[in-house]
Amino acid sequence: MDSLIFRSLPGTFTAFHWHGDTFKIPHGAAWIAQSEGCANQAFECGRTIGLQFHLEYSRKSIDLMFRNCGDELVEGKYIQTPDEIISRIGNVHEMNKTLYLILDNMEREFGATP
Questions:
Q1: How many Cβ atoms sit within 10 Å of the Cβ of residue 9?
Q2: Rounded-to-integer distance, Cα 31 and Cα 114, Å
Q3: Residue 81: alpha-carbon gap to chain centroid
C-alpha cells in the first residue's frame, strides 16, 4: 500500500460498524480498504481520510448506540445482535491503538495543528 497514513496498519483487523449506507470514493481520492460487507471502507485524498468504520468506540459509546439507535439492529447478513456485539467488545483496546496509530501517522505526515 502506498499510503503513508495506512501502510503501518495490519493487513486485516476487526473494526466496529454501525451504518446503513456507504459512500463512493471521491474523484481524485485513493481507495484504501474494503471488506466482504462493504466495498469502500477507507479512502485518502490529500490531508483527508474517510472511514466507513469506527475505531473510536468504547463500551459506553456502544451502550449509548443501543439506547439511541437500537431499532436499527434488524436481521441481516452483516448485522449482529446486541449480545454478539457485546461478546466482541474485548477488541476495543486494539482498535483504539489502531486509531492512535492513524492519528500519529497523520501528525507525522501533515504536521500538528497550531
A1: 18
A2: 29
A3: 19
